Amino acid sequence: MFMFSIFTSLLIYFSGVYVFSSKRKHLLMVLLSLEYIVLSLFMLILVFLIQFDFDYFFPIIFLVFSVCEGALGLSILVSMIRSHGNDFFNSFALSLC
After folding, report:
1. Domains in the chain: how many in total?
2. 75 Cβ contact partners less than 8 Å away, ≥ 6 residues apart
3. What's the confidence (pLDDT) of residue 96?
4. SS3 for 91?
5. Tens digit of pLDDT for each residue in 11-36?
6. Helix crossing, 27-51 with 57-84: angle to 10°?
7. What is the DSSP string of 2-71?
8. For the segment 38-93, what is each residue's pLDDT rounded down to a tens digit?
9. Which residues cross the membrane (predicted)?
């Protein structure tokens, strides 16, 4: 059961990394793949903590930071859609800054 959990969370992690690296045009797809990666890391941390019988304080702190990261990403997405009309990375020029 332990090896199956590790294999599943690593498979989820690498599929999230693949989506993150291949779908770079839309900000929403990048944010969803980052949340997918964070979820797989949370599962991996939880499996290791259960296996070695440690306390569960770190996963709670990890979840708090991942929720803050998700809220910040969504606020950037909403701001970008309001200012530019879409979530393409190519729609705004970074060279004008």
Report:
1. 1
2. none
3. 52
4. helix
5. 999 999 999 999 888 889 999 999 99
6. 180
7. HHHHHHHHHHHHHHHHHHHHH--SBHHHHHHHHHHHHHHHHHHHHHHHHHTT--SHHHHHHHHHHHHHHH
8. 999 999 999 999 999 888 899 999 999 999 999 999 999 899 889 888 888 777 66
9. 6-21, 28-50, 56-78
Phi, psi dihedral angles at 19 (to 5 degrees): -65, -40
Long-range contacts of 63-68 (CB under 8 A, 24+ apart): 66/35, 66/38, 66/39, 66/42
* Cβ atoms 89, 31 nearer than 8 A: no
The reported pLDDT for the residue numbered 84 is 82
Among candidates 23, 37, 5, which has minimal Cα distance to 89?
23
Question: Which structural domain range is residue 63 located in?
Answer: 1-95
